[in-house]
Design brief:
binds zinc ion; 8% strand; 3 helices; 2 domains; rod-shaped; mainly alpha
């Protein structure tokens, strides 16, 4: 493939914004990719920023997948444990509430694992 602007010069790579072939005179190396000199540097930088931001957000989210479910399960144990401790039995409201929290936490945990762990 040849440069989009210089039909006789071989291209050294593609612009990340428009995917046109570029020779060394037309390409600007932005470390994370090539861009058309003078026209697409800003656009390629913007694209890169969006991509790396999303990657960071995804990484943070996958780190936090256990925190919310564990919080619900802990709440459930506190509610349920408290009602048992008080001798109120399993039909008491706080035990039912606690069981609900634990079930919700487990469902959340399974769901989060499916979303984040599978793709890695
Ligand atoms: Zn371009
Ligand atoms: Zn060129």
């Amino acid at each position: 493939m040849n440069c989009f602007n210089h039909q006789t010069t071989p291209a050294i790579g593609l612009c990340k914004a428009c995917s046109r072939g570029l020779c060394s005179d037309c390409a600007t190396d932005l470390d994370h990719g090539l861009a058309c000199t003078g026209t697409h540097e800003e656009r390629v930088n913007d694209l890169e920023m969006i991509i790396s931001r999303n990657a960071t957000a995804f990484k943070d989210a996958s780190k936090n997948i256990y925190i919310v479910p564990v919080f619900y399960i802990a709440m459930g144990l506190i509610f349920g444990g408290y009602s048992l401790y008080e001798g109120r039995g399993v039909s008491h409201f706080s035990f039912v509430l606690g069981a609900g929290f634990i079930i919700f936490g487990v469902v959340l945990l399974v769901r989060n694992r499916k979303i984040f762990v599978k793709g890695q």
